[in-house]
Write a structure and sequence with these properties.
By secondary structure, the chain is mostly beta strands. It contains no helices and ten strands. It has strands at residues 2-4, 11-14, 23-30, 36-42, 74-80, 87-93, 99-106, 112-118, 148-154, 161-167. Strands 3-4-5-6 form a four-stranded antiparallel beta sheet, with no helix packed on it.
Amino acid sequence: ISKLNSTGSALLYSTYFGGAGDDCITGIAVDATGAVYMAGSSTTTNLPTTAGAFQPKFKGYANLPFLIAQDFGDGFVGKLDPTGSKLVYLSYLGGSTNDAVTALAVDSQGNAYVTGFTDSPDFPVTTGALQPQLAGDGGLGLYLFYGDAFVSVVNPAGTALLYSSYFGGNRD
């Protein structure tokens, strides 16, 4: 994660993010204070989740059977302070199989809106979810596991899901 000055002529900060697994940031946003929100997918089983994270532990599998399929592990959502030197929050977001956050937006209150895909039958959903259960998986290819889309809203402290639901039909 790197931040340049407004003219793009100087690096203000730059930091690595991740661990021993495959870590990919696929969504990024900046709020009015300059804090950076990030989201993506990770197979790292010990990311530095923060105290009070709504999902502090990795739930997805690290290796698929026979290592023949795409492995996304769990999604994650995090926030860096404006200096890029401290995690304000970091939480996994996923269930027991493939989960990935693919997009992120932040509102003026600091709520993070994330969307992506999951084939986890135990993906975290909230009471009143539009679609509380996984509707289906399969159809794109023998070893591609995308399942249903999801939409989730994370509170400003990263301690709770305000809303989370599957969204999809009986195939990928």
